[in-house]
Amino acid sequence: MNTQEKIEAAGKKKEEGNLLFKAGKYERASKRYEKAARYIEYDSSFSDEEKQQAKVLKVSCNLNNTACKLKLKDYKQAEKLCTKVLELDSQNVKALYRRAQAYIQLVDLDLAEMDIKKALEIDPENRDVKLEYKILKEKVKEYNKKDTQFYGSIFSQPLLVKFLVFMLGFEGIS
Question: Would you list the DSSP string of the chain?
C-alpha cells in the first residue's frame, strides 16, 4: 500500500467509526478508529503534505476514539489517547477537555484542573469547558467534605483522649 492509499484507507476506517459511534456501537467504533490510526502511524515515507494530512487524521481518530473510551468508562485509555493528541497539538482544546473528563473520573482532580485551566486560556468562551470546570469544582467540594468527615472522625475527642491515655500511661482516666 502506498502512502496515499494508507491515508485514504485511514479516512474510510474513520468514517466507518463515525457511523458506528452515531449508532451507539462504541466498542466497534473504537476498533475502527484504532485501525485508521495504525494505517498512518508511521509516516516517515510520507511527503510533507501527506504528513500534514496524516496528522489531522491522527488527531481526529484519537479524539473520536477518546469519546468512545469515555462512553465505555475506560478512563485510563481515554487519558492516554488525549495525551497522544496533545503531543501532536499541545493547544488542542478538545483533547484538554476530554482528558480533564477522564482525570475527573479517575479522581485525579489536580491534573483535571490544570487541563481545564489551560483549555480556558486557549478558548475562554468554550461553554463545554466552563461547564466541566463547574463539575470539577463540585467534585473537589465533595472530596474535601469526605476528607473532613473522615479525618474529623479519626481525631474526634474520645478517640484522642483514649490515645493519650494509652500513650502517656495515665491511669484513672477513661
Answer: --HHHHHHHHHHHHHHHHHHHHTT-HHHHHHHHHHHHHHTS--TTS-HHHHHHHHHHHHHHHHHHHHHHHHTT-HHHHHHHHHHHHHH-TT-HHHHHHHHHHHHHTT-HHHHHHHHHHHHHH-TT-HHHHHHHHHHHHHHHHHHHHHHHHHHHHT-HHHHHHHHHHHHT--S--
